[in-house]
Amino acid sequence: MATLPPLDPALAGENHSPHVIASICIVVALSTVFAAARLYVRVYMMRKFQFDDFIIVLSVVCGWTSVGFSTAAMYSGSGRHIQTLTDKQRQGAILFTLIGFVPGILSYVLPKMAVVTLLGRLLNPSRSHLIWLWSMCIICLVTQMGAVGIVFGQCQPLRSQWDFSVPADFCLSKWILVHYTQGTCTLCAFVDLYLSVYPATVLYKIQLSAKKKIGLSVALGMGLVATIVTIYKITVLESLAGLDFAFDSSDLTIWTVVEGSVIIIAACIPLLQPLVEKVQNRSWSFKGDSQSAYLTPNSASGRRQGYSDIELSDNKSRIRRARRKFEMESVLETKNNDENFGAASMPAGSQERILEEDETVPTTASRAQVDSNSTQPELPGGIYRTDELRISYANDDGNSTMSHRYQESWS
Asked: Residue 110: CA atoms inside 13 Å, Cβ hemisphere, count?
């Protein structure tokens, strides 16, 4: 261990551990609340638990594991100047801080994969673009694990990093670790930025109201906050090379945990709309099977507005296919009432939700009364206009009426 400089007596009483413990516990607890809300929507309301949900749960576990090791480090002496600690306190502070970095790193890398899974389901990127998104996340994960390797391999034997009674055979310069982590964190910041801006570029090209575009862009672009956090964390990475590691690493511990919590929250927000509707005293009904499930809130007025995994695309052919699968039940029911009962037309409400490609459009009763011998052939999914022609003629037995149904596809 390098010789420590003398400590100013006025600084001997400095202790960052209370606010470090409070900060990391609060942010991880907040991310846990958002993750629990997400699971409530996905599991309880939508009857789904998919890969990205599992990743979020794993990320929260990693976040709390990091909090546990960081808290142990604080109680051992981390957060105070290393000159004021005993050898046993120094060993505990350094060891638990280094171990806590591992789940801390996983807590902000794994949620990126959950975000990519969600965007792949919602935005329908091309195969090559989806490969690019996953490649960025995997590269980020591999490079961050490389930083872990440098942390635990920079000195041999390994124990010499925290047990000062064990002499080190050799040690790499600590600035190698600093520069490497600055590079990897810059890459992760770019990934967060890309995943935040990408949804807005897709939403800009499709036909949605400006309010809807802004709302979805904000919900899907919350990772921009994580980008800002990561950029700030890069400025405190030099503490890894500090001689007073126990004291200097306090800010790095905080911002590592904050970064993971922010990304978890950003990955959960886009899926919380059904819960918001429920809190606003709307009743929800579950429809569909395991392959095509969605939720429909039923307001007191009887208007229907569905929410599901929003499927969007900047590919025109995909947009056309998605439009053919809009839920038209309320529109058809309104027209049925007009034709069968002569009721006044009522607005069907906005149908801006795009269903998943494997969902089918629900159908209603026939739009017009036809002869009992007339049958309607089965037709593939789509929107059809039905014209009924009635031909009346007289014969020797009396009057007889026949009808013919003509259907024209609008798909």
From this structure: 22
